[in-house]
Amino acid sequence: MSLAGAIADARKSATRLYINNFADQGRQNTIDTLLGRLVEQKPVHLYDPINDYVTAELRERLHEFSTTESIYIWAGTFNLNGKGARSNHDLSAWLSPSLGDQRRSPEIIAVGFQEIVELSPQQIMSTDPGRRQIWEEAVRQTINTEMKRSPEDEYVLLRSGQLVGAALLVFVRSRALKKIKNVEGSVKKV
Q1: Residue 44 pLDDT > 90, yes or no?
Q2: How many degrees, rounded to 5, is the angle at CA 148 between CA 80 and CA 177?
Q3: What pLDDT digit, counting tens, does each position of 62-72 carry?
């Protein structure tokens, strides 16, 4: 890199710093005013007649293309403190608490883990999914073993994801899979 290139880069950096911290404030205030985000300002309502019409028509014809059903969802979270799953680890007290005779098995089970791996610089840069997969299997085995008391079918892993030390596992009853469409997810590490 030449001296002229270094000076040009420094000038661009200084210009960006000035614009981002001083010159854009007027633009941001204008945007905030138009959107009703200023302190003690009444909210601004944006009307879209086409969207309002389409929404009203869809609401009127809802019964033609939609059905509703009540389902049970169990959600739980657990901090592992970086410990791995063992083959003899019993999760039944947590994943299947005694609810008496009125117990109904959930259709969806969402399990969150914190600190699934030890938080080290190496794990932050490149997370190994091995521990998440071990816990997936431990949870799957536990819920399918515990739910065998009822005649309903088994749970399957619908989706899982991990971002460094946090993991989310979503299990669903296999009979409910035909009702589930377009499962999407995204993980972004910055």
Answers
A1: no
A2: 80
A3: 989 888 888 88
